[in-house]
Amino acid sequence: MSEWWTYSLSDLLLFSPQTYYRLFELYNKDIWPIQFLPLALGAAIPVLVFRKPAWQGRAITAILSASWIWVAWAYHLQRYATINWAAPYFATGFAGEAVLLIWTGIIRGRLVYEAATKLLNRTGLSVFVFALVVHPLIGPMFGQKLVQAELFGTAPDPTVIATLGILLLAANRVFWELLIIPVIWCAISGAILWMMKSPGAFVAPFAALVIIIFAVRKP
Question: Which domain holds residue 106?
Answer without folding.
Answer: 32-216
